[in-house]
Amino acid sequence: MKKLLTLKEIGERGRNGEYRAICDNGKTYEASYSAEYKCMFFCIPYDVKVLGYVESSIAEHAAEAAELIWEING
How far is the C-alpha of 47 from the C-alpha of 2, rounded, in Å? Predict the structure, then answer.
């Protein structure tokens, strides 16, 4: 599995991007990085901690693969 990205690592890329915030409640949330403002925009519950980020495209492929495996294994 690919390691989670930190906000610092994303900022060092210097470009806008769409991500999934991986959180300590076992859920993921949509997140957008703004290179102009050097910050991540997302909406999560106040008591949830962000563990890291993955690029949205990677998260979508992982979710699709997990669904397929689930269907195959029943």
Answer: 26
Q: DSSP letters along 45-59, please?
A: -TTPPEEEEEEHHHH
List, for residues 29-73, the tens digit of each pLDDT value: 999 999 999 999 999 999 999 999 989 887 776 666 556 556 656
Q: What is the pTM of this model?
A: 0.77
The separation between the first and the last C-alpha atoms of the chain, rounded to the nearest angstrom, is 23
Residues whose CB falls within 8 Å of the CB of residue 25, separated by 6 or more in sequence, listed in order:
45, 48
Q: What angle do CA 26, 30, 33 make, to 5 degrees?
A: 125
Pair of tokens at residue 74: 């029943």
